[in-house]
């Protein structure tokens, strides 16, 4: 009921996308240690130098390992949620049992 009385927030309009000149200016002002450009430089070096099969294989294995770990983490998350629910149910059962025992003692 109270939510109807809240004033609606009006968001500002979306800014125009930057022009090519603005993008190039931003790139020109970026420092060399910017992580985005280090990845771009690594990729450019691979293309220029003809990336070795070992480097490509290494990146493939890293990607494959990442996907395996991600899958494992998702499965582990599901198991943890299940165990949390089991613990919650056991806690509720324990509380009922404790209340029952207290009721008998009185």
> Could you say which overall geometry the principal axes of the C-alpha atoms support?
flat
Instruction: State the secondary-structure class.
Output: mainly alpha
> Helical stretch count?
4
Rg on CA atoms, Å: 29 Å
Mean pLDDT: 82
* Span between termini: 45 Å
β content, as a range? Answer: under 5%
The counted number of beta strands is: 0
Q: What helical percentage do the residues reach?
A: over 70%
Main pleated sheet: none
Helix/strand order: HHHH
Runs in which pLDDT lies below 50 for 5 or more consecutive residues are none
What does this structure look like?
The chain has helices at about 1-5, 20-30, 35-50, 55-105. It has about 110 residues and is mainly alpha-helical. The protein has a domain at about 50-105. The longest helix has about 55 residues, at about 55-105. The mean pLDDT is about 80. About 0% of the residues are buried.
Summary, kept brief:
This protein has 106 residues and is mainly α. Helices cover 77% and strands 0% of the residues.
SSE topology:
Blueprint: H1 2-5, H2 20-29, H3 35-49, H4 53-105
Protein name: Si:ch73-238c9.1
Family: Belongs to the UPF0449 family.
Organism: Scleropages formosus (Asian bonytongue)
List keywords for this structure.
Si:ch73-238c9.1; 106 residues; UPF0449; mainly alpha
């Amino acid at each position: 009921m109270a939510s109807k009385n809240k004033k609606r927030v009006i968001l500002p309009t979306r800014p125009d996308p930057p022009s090519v000149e603005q993008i190039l200016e931003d790139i020109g002002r970026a420092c060399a240690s910017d992580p985005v450009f280090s990845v771009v430089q690594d990729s450019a070096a691979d293309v220029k130098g003809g990336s070795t099969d070992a480097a490509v294989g290494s990146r493939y294995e890293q990607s494959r390992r990442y996907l395996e770990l991600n899958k494992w983490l998702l499965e582990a998350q599901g198991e943890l949620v299940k165990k949390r629910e089991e613990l919650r149910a056991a806690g509720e059962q324990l509380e009922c049992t404790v209340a029952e025992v207290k009721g008998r003692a009185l």
